[in-house]
Amino acid sequence: MIANTDMFNTYSxxxxxxxxxxxxxxxxxxxxxxxxVSYLGFRPTLQAHTDVLLxxxxxxxxxxxxxxxxxxxxxxxxxxxxEPDLFVLCDDHIRFRDNRSTxxxxxxxxxTSYTAxxxxxxxxxVITLSILRIATLMLSETGGNIGLTGKSFADNSRTFINxxxxxxYLQPLDGLRIMRF
Length: 181
What we know:
This protein is α+β, with helices and mostly antiparallel strands. It has two domains: about 5-45 and about 120-175, no CATH class; about 45-115, no CATH class. The chain has helices at about 5-10, 20-40, 125-140, 165-170, and strands at about 45-55, 60-65, 70-75, 80, 85-90, 95, 105-115, 150, 160. It is elongated. The two termini are about 25 Å apart.
C-alpha cells in the first residue's frame, strides 16, 4: 500500500486503534488507493511489467502505460529482439537513442518488459495525499454521516457540500493521468 495507517492516523487525527478500527482504516486506505489507481490509469508503485503488448504508431516515441520508467529489460519489434541499450528511457515513454528510428505502425506489434513506478519513499506526494484525503472522507462518512455538510450564511441561506464526489480530490493528479491506453 502507498499510504499506511500511521500516515492515515496523523492526517485524519483519528488515533483509534482497536482491531475493528484498524481493519476499517485499512479498508478505507485500500479503497482510496484503488480509486486513485483507477483515475490515474496505472498502478504507481514500483513493479515489473512483463510481456506488455503495445501498438507502434510510426512515431519516435513509444508511450508505455506507466510513469517513472526505470529499466527496460527487453523489447521485440515484430519478430526482431532488440537490445535495451538502443533506447532512452523517459518518464512515460521510450525512444530510440539515435533519434532517427521510429516505432513501426501496427497493432500489438511491440512486446516489452520493463520496470516502472515509485518506491513508497519516492512516491509523488500528490498521490499519497490524494489517497489520504479520500480515505479521510470515507472515515467521515461512518457512523451515519451521509457525506454532506452545510454552511449557513448571514442572509439565512445555506450551502451543502457533497463529500462523496472525489473528483476535486483527484483533480491534482491530472498531470500524472494516463488516458491514451
